[in-house]
Amino acid sequence: MRSKFPSKWLPYALLFPTLALCGLFLYYPVVQSFRLSTYRAILMGLHRKYVGLENYVRLFTSSDYLNSLTVTMIFAFGVVVIGLSISLAIAMLANRKVRGARVYRIALIWPYALSPAVAGSIWLFLLNPTVGVVNYFLKRFFGISPDWMSNGHLALLAVTMAAAWKNMGYNIVFFLAGLQNVPGEVLEAARVDGAGPWRTFWSVTFPMLSPTTFFLLIMNLIYAFFGAFGLISVMTEGGPAQATNILIYNLYQEAFRFHKWGTAAAQSVVLFVMVVVLTLIQFRTTGRRVHYGGN
Q1: What are phi and psi of 243, to 5 degrees?
Q2: What is the pTM of this model?
Q3: Alpha helices, H only, 23-115
Q4: Which helix or strand (DSSP H or E) is residue 42 part of?
Q5: Which of 227, 247, 209 is nearest to 85 (CA)?
Q6: Among residues 112, 96, 114, 115, which one has the least CA distance to residue 104?
Q7: What mean pLDDT value characterizes the chain?
């Protein structure tokens, strides 16, 4: 049955506010980024010179940019694997019927409500080499007190853990929703057939969580590429020695510190295309193993 409007212009009038906002704040900036990536800014952006694809050639022949690309891949892999694994384990525990379960679930979700700047500040205090809680326990039990922000490998590990923790509440919410939708009779049937807890999880629970896991895989990937800027800015500012200089922070430096607007625009285009390609690859590979239950 087709819906009828009193005027043929009414649907367009209802859509206009959304289309106007999307056009102004989404489509226009995207088009401008593609356009600006073919120019080189001169005199701090006061003048522009058309250079075609020169900015892209410079990027992929720059050792600094290739290093930033490598760091981003490692960072994204760590955020996705650590974040999803720990979030699923916590969600499994939080899904149990215990007294005060709602309080525990709210407490697990609250880190997601923090701003990246606040989350970064919290982790800076935790990892402080002198008064940090983490180093206190490491010193007491293992006799070591690492300086997290002065060592490149440790700094990358620190920001990866902080980013995974920051997004953990988001993951737990969706995993909890997925776990609560797993039919109890299916789990009971698996137990009757003699399946243990691990067998039940891998053969029944996890396959039924595949739509949720796939969705979170995509969202965590996007978060790792675009949403971790605040953490990096507060915790390391891309250092030490560019060890945590992920692509989104490198883009910020090129644009707002060095005023290389053309190169920064080219980086934004590359980042956009990269995330789209990775998402499509995941849809074609991981997506094939996703099972959507039907009636």
Answers
A1: -70, -25
A2: 0.87
A3: 28-36, 54-60, 63-94, 101-109
A4: strand 39-42
A5: 209
A6: 96
A7: 86
**Sign of the alpha-carbon dihedral angle for 73, 75, 76, 82:** positive
Q: Output Rg (C-alpha) for the chain, integer angstroms.
A: 24
d(CA 231, CA 82): 17
Residue ranges of domains in the chain, CATH in brackets = 36-289 (1.10.3720.10)
- Distance, in Å, from the CA atom of 246 to the CA atom of 24, rounded to the nearest integer, reads 28
Tell me the three state secondary structure of residue 97: coil
What tokens does 290 get? Answer: 């996703």
Q: In whole angstroms, what is the distance from residue 157 CA to residue 153 CA? A: 6
Q: Could you tell me how far CA 81 lies from the centroid of its own chain? A: 11
Contact of 187 with 38, CB cutoff 8 Å? no
d(CA 168, CA 170) in angstroms, rounded, equals 5
pLDDT in tens, 44-73: 656 778 888 899 998 989 999 999 999 999
